Amino acid sequence: MTLTASAKPVSPPRPPAVRRAWRKVSPYAYIAPFFTLFAAFGLFPLIYTAFVSLYRVELQTPGDMEWRGLGNYTALFGDEFFWTALRNTFTIGVISTVPQLVMALGLAHLLNYRLRGRTFLRTAMLLPYATSVAAATLVFAQLFGRDFGLINYVLGLVGFGPVDWQTGTVASQIAVSTIVIWRWTGYNALIYLAGMQSIPSELYEAAEVDGASRWRQFFHVTLPGLRPTILFTVVVSTIGATQLFGEPLLFEGSISGGISHQYQTLGLYMYEQGWGFFHLGRAAAIAWVMFLLILVLVGANALIARRRSRKEAGR
């Protein structure tokens, strides 16, 4: 007697039309979760904020909406505290961004050489970035104390009088900018370091053969190779400076940014209008003004970089 194995049922081949349709649809199915989350938590809040900015909405009665059109924006531009917050945002942004990126570039240049303990130094640079904003700001608020702060104690040793870091306009903005510089310098330094390590070593060898010193190598090899990375850090730092909120809020614990609003930023001003004065419509208008301001600044940076690259390509 012979035994014969039962043949497995063969599934019918998939129609070519279904296979072609799946090949076209499958990439969109893979990226659908991202766009779903983006639409729910990114696009919808942005559109709804623009909708709310056209109405008079109070926090106590969010269901009662009164049409105002552009009234929130005209009232905003007529408020002197808005222009004060805008000026403070620009000043603190410049004071914190420029030294931060310059110091980060110098630190990255030093770490690019073969130093002892480079791994430890790179890890230590990320510690300020990993530190909580609240913890860092509270510590710096104690350091910048007028009567018992360490900064004034050191200034007293070299002959300077005590500085009221929380009342003076320039002093308070410098203090807030110092917190931002401390937190983000190491982060940007590691980004610059990654960009430096992607520059071909043959360029440095050729420059050394031509007799270029390390300074000339830095200005003529490193900086041109880091131009896209520098543009990226400038754009990210500009966005961060425009949205600055935690540091000025916790520096003194006041949503007004000091007695005379001397270090109130746009983010803090928006919080004050929405959750301090309960004007949700005006707070939404401020949010959209900040969004448009970021678009203008980022576009200006991209335009300047494009024009400069065109000039260098035409040489």
Automatic annotation (TrEMBL):
Keyword flag Cell membrane: yes
Transmembrane segments: 28-55, 90-111, 123-145, 165-184, 226-246, 285-305
UniProt-listed Gene3D superfamilies: MetI-like
ABC transmembrane type-1 domain location: 86-299
UniProtKB keywords: Cell membrane, Membrane, Transmembrane, Transmembrane helix, Transport
Name of protein: Sugar ABC transporter permease
Source organism, top-level taxon: Bacteria
SUPFAM superfamilies linked to this entry: MetI-like
Organism: Streptomyces kurssanovii
Membrane topology, from the record: Multi-pass membrane protein
InterPro entries: ABC_transporter_permease, MetI-like, MetI-like_sf
Family of the protein in this entry: Belongs to the binding-protein-dependent transport system permease family.
Subcellular location: Cell membrane
